[in-house]
Request: fold
Amino acid sequence: MRRSIETIDLDHGSWLRLDCGHPVNESASAVNDDEPADCALCDRAQLPVGLIAVGPVRRRHIGDPRPCTVMTPTAWTVLTVESGAVRVGGRGHSDRPLAAHARAVLVAGALYQLTAVPDAVIELQRLEFPRAPVASTDVGDRTGE
Ligand SMILES: [Zn+2]
Reply:
């Protein structure tokens, strides 16, 4: 999957990563920072390290009258089948039906087709990188506006 390279600024320097959150590998770092790189980890739906759950779990029914739905999550998402069964067609998945309590990782920005067989309730949990270290609110080092 094509990803852009971004620079992450930390207090003690900066480093490069792909905008999906995966590290830049050797082949990617050899190319220009301005050009997209292929991410094999996204192709396998492998969660980047360091993500945390953000926001409420969204529950969704798939089935009669619409047994099929198409979605492109804007962030990494964990899909949990609460009841019924659902096929996950898309990046990193084999399209086999997932039964209740099964989980699937949905890659940020990838297209998925979810098909209930014949009915399912799913839960979607969004994952993101923490925006700042937990202790930073106590430090009082904010600069002026
Ligand atoms: Zn990736």
Remarks:
- The mean pLDDT is 86.
- The radius of gyration is 18 Å.
- The helical segments are 26-29, 40-43, 136-139.
- Residues 2-43 form one domain.
